[in-house]
Amino acid sequence: MLEGKKIVVVMPAYNAEKTLKKTYDEIPKDIVDEIFVTDDYSTDRTAEIAKALGLEVYVHEKNKGYGANQKTCYKEALKKGADIIIMLHPDYQYPPKLITAMAGLITSGMFDVVLGSRVLGGMALKGGMPLYKYISNRLLTFIENILLGQKVSEYHTGYRAFSKKVLLNLPLLENSDDFVFDNQILAQAIYFGYRIGEITSPSIYTGESSSIGFRRSVVYGFGVLSTALKFVLQRLRIAKFQIFSQNGKKLSP
Question: Do the Cβ atoms of 75 and 170 come closer than 8 Å?
């Protein structure tokens, strides 16, 4: 625990057999209460390795998508009574040692969501992020900051910490089961007035790092722009969308 808060680390996995143990080994066990893996129907030994590490594993019966994987992560973490939920990819792209700092920003009471930004400190390209991904990341973030009225350095990091109230109160079940879920949850957090903090997070890109191809990146980009446009239209009361509805479907522990 940290400041009396239960810390749960969730690892949404897909074909992470080569990096799962390395990621797990660096998680700060002194403050983390529970760690588990959700396996989105991997074709490798991800689930087997997770179990060998003594981790609880939830395996989808079919490949449902990255967003659906996160929904399972957060639902199970809430069932375990988590006060702070940290999503850490098991591909060793993000440094697990930052978990303590991210959790601390939430226990301080100053933030509800904390992002590990690869852009702060100029870390993205140094860590091996492909140039086209870096350019698209910066462009989409620039557009989103204008439309959402924010100054976030990066909306597209997969390293995130959430307070329990955020995951209980956002209509997460209205979100996509695909990659754009990552963007939708942040837009929702902003729409409903939750406070977002960031820390610098060095990243490491290797052959085992999870990534999406160019075509799916384009689909993701249009999804991001669509989410931002819906945000603006709802704020202006021109249209209504379930992802920004207080009555939208929510997770239940």
Answer: no
Pairing of strands 7-13, 56-59: unpaired
**pLDDT tens for residues 149-186?**
999 999 999 999 999 999 999 999 999 999 999 999 99
Q: What is the DSSP letter of 166?
A: H
Q: What is the DSSP string of 145-211?
A: HHHHT---S-S--S-EEEEHHHHHHS-GGGS-SSTTHHHHHHHHHHHTT--EEEEE------TTS--
- Rounded to whole angstroms, the Cα distance separating 56 from 119 reads 33
Residue 237 lies in a domain: yes
pTM of the model: 0.95
**Encoded tokens for 233:** 């239209």
**Token pair listed for 244:** 């920004």
The CATH number assigned to the domain holding 117 equals: 3.90.550.10
Cα 20 to Cα 206: distance, rounded to the nearest angstrom: 14
